Amino acid sequence: MSIRFAPESARFWHNARMDPKFFAKRRQEVMQQMGGGVAILPTAPVRPRNRDVHYLYRPDSDFYYLTHFPEPEAVAVLVPGRAHGEYILFCRDRHPEKEIWEGRRAGLDGAREHYGADDAFPIDDIDEILPGLLENREKVFYSMGRYPDFDTHLMNWVNEVRGKARNGVNAPGEFVDLHHIVHEMRLIKRPEEIKLMKRAAKVSAAAHRRAMQACKPGMMEYEVEAELLYEFRKGGSEYTAYPPIVGGGANACVLHYNENNAELKNGDMLLIDAGAEIDGYAADITRTFPVNGKFKGEQKAVYEIVLAAQLAAIEQVRVGKHWNEPHEAAVRVLTQGLKDLGILKGDVAGHIEQGDYKRFYMHRTGHWLGMDVHDVGDYKLGEAWRELEAGMVLTVEPGLYIAEGSKDVDARWWNIGIRIEDDVLVTREGNEVLSREAPKAVDEIEALMKEKSG
Ligand code: GLY
Ligand code: MN
Ligand code: MN
C-alpha cells in the first residue's frame, strides 16, 4: 500500500460546530416544500491536483447545508413520507485498515448517530438500492448539470425503473431543479448561520489588521499573504473562502490578481482581498492601504471617494430597498468624485447614463455572501430587482482602478487601484457591518500602521 495524499474528509470533521437539530429542521423544510417525490443530493467529488495528490476536500454547499456531513463519496436522499425513514445517507463504510492511512470515517452507524440519518447504506451499494427509492415517485428533485458524472448515474437508475413498467412500477415523470427550494432557503441566513458568518468576518478582519501592521516597503506580497493565512488558521478557519488577492502598486488594478509574488514598493498602495471560511461560511473583505503607512495626496483623494461611495452604498442596505440601490448610490458618488478630481469632465448625470465611469469602476457593488463567496439566491424576481429582507448578507465593495496609461488621465493618478469591501447583514432595524473590525478610515489605518513601527 502506498501513501496517497487523498483528502478523506473535509477539515470540518473536527470542527462541527452546529447542532444536528438545525440540519434536521432544514431537511424538514425542504420536504414540506417538495410535497412528495424524492430529492437526491450528491456531495462534491474529490478533485485531483497532480499525480496522486488531491485538492483539500470541501463538500458541496447544498449537500453540506442539509447534512453537515463532511466526507466525500456521499449522497443524501430525502423521501417525504417514507415509512422506514425520510432521510437516507449513502456513505463510505468503515474500513479500519484504510482509516489508518487515510483518516477516520463516520461509517453507517456514525451517519445515523452523529448526522441524523434515518437510514444509512454503503455508497458501494447505491446502484442496487437507489432505483427502488425512485419507484412510484412522480417527481425527482435534483440539481441537474452540476456534477455531470452523477447526472449519468441518475439517468441510468431512472431507466432501470422505466424498464419495470410492465410489472406495474411507475417511473418518475417529472424532474424539478432542487436549486429553487434550497437556494431560497440559503439566501435568508438563520441565527445559527449568522453566528458563523460573524466569526468568519471577525477572524478575517483580524487578519487584515495583522497584514496592515506587518506590511513595510521591501516585503514581498506573499509575505503579507502569509500573515493573513496565519491569522485565518489560528482563528480556526478551515480554508480560505477564495484565493487571497494581495496586489501592490499596479497589481491592484488587476481585479483577480493572485500571483502575490511582487515586491511592495515604498510609496505604493496595497490592495488585499481575503476572507476566511468557517464551517462552510465565507467572509469576503477588501482593504487598500499605503505600503509605508502614510497616504499620499492622490492616493488619499481617490481613497476618500471610494470610502464615501461605500458608506453611501451601505446606507442603502436596509429592508425594503432593492438589490440595485446600493450600487446606484455607489456609482453616483464615484462618478461625482471622478469629476471633482478632473478625471471625468462634463456632466455627471450624463456620465452615469452613458456608463463612462466603467473605465474606472468595471464591476458591481456586491453579491450575496454565505456558504459560497458569491452565494446563491436570485437577484431579480421576474423583471424587478429583489427587495432586501432581514437575514440576507451581501458584500458592499465599490472601487476605482486607474490603470497605467489611462487615456486622457494625468499620469499622477495612474496605478492607483482601490477597493473597500465589507460584509453586511440586513437586520430588521437597518444593517450590521460584520467586518467592521477591519479599519477603513484614513486616520484609523495610519494610526494602526504606525503602532507597529512606533
Ligand atoms: N473576493 C471576490 C469578490 O470580492 O467578489
Ligand atoms: Mn466580494
Ligand atoms: Mn472580495
Give an account of the 3D structure.
- This protein has helices at residues 20-34, 61-67, 96-102, 107-115, 126-134, 148-162, 179-187, 191-214, 221-234, 297-315, 325-340, 348-354, 442-453; strands at residues 38-42, 48-50, 53-54, 75-78, 87-91, 119-122, 139-141, 174-176, 239-240, 245-248, 269-274, 276-278, 281-282, 285-290, 380-381, 384-385, 393-396, 399-402, 416-419, 422-426, 431-433.
- It has 454 residues and is α+β, with helices and mostly antiparallel strands.
- It is 36% helix and 17% strand.
- The chain folds into 2 domains: 6-185, Creatinase/prolidase N-terminal domain (Creatine Amidinohydrolase, Chain A, domain 1), CATH 3.40.350; 188-450, Creatinase/methionine aminopeptidase superfamily (Creatine Amidinohydrolase), CATH 3.90.230.
- The strands form 7 sheets. The chain has a 6-stranded mixed beta sheet with strand order 6-5-4-1-7-8, with helices on both faces.
- It is elongated and about 80 Å long.
- It starts with 19 loop residues before the first helix and ends with a helix.
- One manganese (II) ion binds next to loops.
